[in-house]
Amino acid sequence: MGIALLAASCRKGEDMRFFAPEAEFSAESYSVASDGAGVDVVVVFSRPAPMAFTLSVNVGGPLVEGVQYSVASRQVAVAEGDRQAVFHLDFVDDEIWDESSWVDVTIAPGTRYTVNPAGCSMTRVNVTKTLVLPVLNLEVVDGDLEMNPYCPETLRLRVVSTIAPKADLTVKLDAGEWVAGQDFLVNDGSAMTLTLPEGKTSAELTLDVVKKDVSGYDKQVTLAIEPEKGVYGAAPTPLTLHLSDPVVDFSPLWKTKAANNGTGYQIRQAIKKTDGSWDGNTTVDLGVSSDGSNYLRNFRNMYSHPSFSCMANASVSQLFRMNEFFPLYLYPNETAILDYGNDQNHREFSPADSLMRFVLDKGETGKGRIYLNAARTFKAYIGSYSAWQDKSTGELAWVVDSRAVNGNIDASQHAALTGSISVTLVKLEGRFDFTNTTEPVLVTAWFRSDSDKFMAADAEHQKDPAGTLGLVQEDGLWKVDYKLWPR
Q1: CA torsion sign, 460 to 466 to 467 to 473?
Q2: Residue 35 CA from chain centroid, whole number
Q3: Which helix (H) or strand (E) holds 386?
Q4: Which residues contact 92 (CB under 8 A, 6 or more apart)?
Q5: CB-based contacts of 254: which residues, under 8 Å, 6+ apart?
Q6: Which of 152, 174, 299, 437 is least crowded, fewest Cβ atoms below 10 Å from its Cβ?
């Protein structure tokens, strides 16, 4: 009895295990002409498929799928008992502009098959083409494809052909939604074409981006050659131009709010003297021109003077300290700059808005350059100092006048105001570095004025290049070096 049971327990049962076949390509490479019927890529199995499954592949390479070639499917249904699977690739001859290129096909991992680690898991399909038309490519000769549109640079580009044309060839350029003559210039003009001369395999062109003053601007523009069927082809390698004007973070300047609840922040401004030292005892109230702007604004900041019950200027809030350019129009001179306030520190020229344009250096977040968009003229009023301070009515004349016009001196008709003077900022160059805590902003400005007392040092109106602050003349203009830093 025991022997019978033992014999029954050793009887061989049915083997229910699944043995996944190993998959590999039948060849390490294939060769095909681009104008042919395509190619079948064959995957073979180490054993017949024990059950139905789906086999997948990945494709890649320099040719563009969906443009220069297509795959009927990246998945093939394998029936039970099959020993191979076939993937078909078709090529678009009119879109292929290289004499030799390729597509790599790789077997993707699966659950019902395995990839033979020692076998051919990737095959390369080599594609050849006999070129009979020139194929053109666009490349950079000189310049940077990264630029700030506020201070754009010239790009020198070159069109290169695989074949020298037998006659002059008109080449069309494409820049997507960008408009030539409006957004950029090609060879100083608005035509989107250039000529590749007969017998030449290359021609150069210049592309100048039209200046854009848009803080925060960020755009990518694709520059390419537009192919013309039957005439020439274009290699699918466009250039991408990145235009970026990042918004500057001015927060390192904003330390102390303007006095008297005024707008902006107090910034110290020093003038460099001829001995190299800095004279920096006055402030200016500055803030951003508008939300997200890369310009600064100078605020006049009128306030209700508690001692005189009238509107008065904030003390020393004027940009560039222009009062100091007229020592003969400052108290105690009888004819003086007049404005609302009890002393000379309240005398101001017209405030400045959108004057200094800040532009970040490439790759920087707190360093860059400062530009002047256009020359600007600033005005102040002059007249009799004694008449402006007259108190014969019981109150100071300027106080009565300020109440009458609510602090708007441009609306004043007071007899003490007998004229005006002006200063024009002609040129400005500067740098900013908000990682520098002692002199984050350095600016050189060039001024002129029609007044005979501008930079005058004595009663005979003699111009003294050394002057009180040590300023110098350059090309007929007065040059002043400033530094600005938060108070």
Answers
A1: positive
A2: 44
A3: helix 385-388
A4: 34, 67, 68, 69, 70
A5: 265, 287, 486
A6: 437
3-state secondary structure of 249: coil
Q: DSSP for 40-56? A: EEEEEESS--SS-EEEE
Strand partners, 78: 53
Strand 233-234 relative to strand 135-142: parallel, antiparallel, unpaired?
parallel
- Distance between CA atoms of residues 371 and 430, nearest Å: 7
- Give the pLDDT confidence of 280-325 residue by residue, as tens digits: 888 999 999 999 999 999 999 999 999 999 999 988 888 999 988 9
Q: Kind and range of the H or E element at 385? A: helix 385-388
Token pair 């076998």 is found at: 119
Cα–Cα distance for residue pair 140/206, rounded to 1 Å: 10
pTM: 0.73
Please tell me whether residue 95 adopts helix, strand or coil conformation: helix
CB half-sphere exposure, 22, CA atoms < 13 A: 10
- Of 110, 118, 125, 107, the residue nearest 34 (C-alpha): 125
